[in-house]
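Quality-control log, excerpt.
Job 1 of 2 completed; input and output follow.
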Amino acid sequence: MLLKTALMCLAMNVYHEARDQSTVGQIAVAQVVINRVNDNRYPDSVCKVVKQSLRDEDGLPIKDKCQFSWYCDGASDKVHEKEAWKKSLQVAKSVLHGKTTNLVGISTHYHADSVYPYWAKEYKRIAKIDDHIFYEWSKK
């Protein structure tokens, strides 16, 4: 059951963060989630990583205060694109089972290339894949 839950959480993240990217780009996004699970600075499960956020006094995610923007942006998380969802599930399953080449090293962060978040200067740039730039933590 835990594997099925992890699969769904990872697939949702791939779908919402990268459904318009190539398969390689989707794999890279999924690998960041797994890298966070394996890093002691982050929660120890896929679902906890995907849903990590600042929360209000009722325990609900605060809008726009999540690690992955789609999770608490106020928009519907419903899947509308069936083919993209099918691909997201396939990518998530492959990454969870370790059947993909590591594309981003130990990267724990990424962002769209259309923005430059405040934290990017504190991290080491590892790769640019499609519309995302991937980083690993490095002390400067």
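Job 2 of 2 completed; input and output follow.
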Amino acid sequence: MTARYGGDANFAPSTSTGVAVNISPENSVTTASIFSVTTNGVPFPLTTASYGSFIYPRADVAGVSQHGVPTGYVYFYDNGNQFSGVNVLNSEGNTALPNGYSYFPAGPHSLTAAYTGDASFHPSTSAPATFTVTAASTQLALTAPQGAAQGGAVTLTATLTSTAFAGQISANYPTGSVTFMIGNTPLGSATPSGSNLDSHGITSVATFYVSSLPIGTNAITAQYSGDTNYSASSASQVSVSIDADFGIAPANISVSATQGGSASNTLTITGQTGYNSTINFSSVSCTGLPLLSSCSFSPVSVTGSGTTIVSVQTKAATSAALLGSPFHSSWRSLGLVFAGVFLLTFRRRYRSAGVFCVFAVTLALGMSGCGGGSSGGGGGGSPGTPKGSYMVTVTATTADKVVSHTASFSLVVQ
């Protein structure tokens, strides 16, 4: 360093000889802290959080003298293990993970921040900032079909939800397993698979297939085992009705009827061991019927094994109305001839064109009215049920709507 005198009216300027001054870097102090934010985005100090919560690590660096602003980089460590990349100090000497960090595992944590130093400030490491992450709570819901036939595959679906990672762009989904049980007897287990992340949190689904449920009403439950980061949970029970199965078969693969007649076929219902359900039949049990036909059953219900007769009634063709008959057409033609002769005679006697026109129009309207009245009274005919071959299918469903089968036969309308 040198000193320079600028001089005055009596003394000339001068410069001192240089004096060496060595400036060594100042010691720095780094402080680590942990924050979270409210739903309104207001930060608050954090000591405990559930897994998947938004956690905001921050480091503040200052010189011991409180003069100057350190520059450079900070690294964060959790329980001695580095978990962040380079974090650059801003103009106020602090830094934080801009998007927070939600992947701290459940358990106790000790966060430290290490400052790398710069030309004016020595490196420093913060004292630990401690906090605890608890396992995220879960909710388990079980769904199953109302029922199935004995030996049929039943799909059990357990949906696991949690508020963890709510509103974030990625998540660590639960591991562990879901055990499905009938009473106190395990049926088997399935691993939940992550399927959705939204503003409410995560959703994982475990699916299990079982075909060994006994006949009757089965109370099914499910339990999630939990893992290091997600707590265990249980689902409310659901009931699954298992019915003994049955078969249905027609006595004839083809029946025939003339137009306007009916055709019948016997349907035999054969139940397996333990089957005693009731099947109710109605007109809606038939599909594939031709136009202008209907079906009926006798008896209309069968309990256990038995038979019912299905009858298909067709409609005959009907003749056209009187308006379309040759007899009516002849009278109409004769009327027109009579009207023409009358008009010629009338015109010879009454030369007035005006009177003639009025009379002609009146007569024409009268004839039209007669024709229209006859037409309205007669109506049209019907071609009846179309002739041809049709595949008729009868659906048999148990009264509890658990088991359903079909039987088909050909209907020939001649």
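Post-run check on job 2. Residues 321-378 have pLDDT under 50 and may be disordered.
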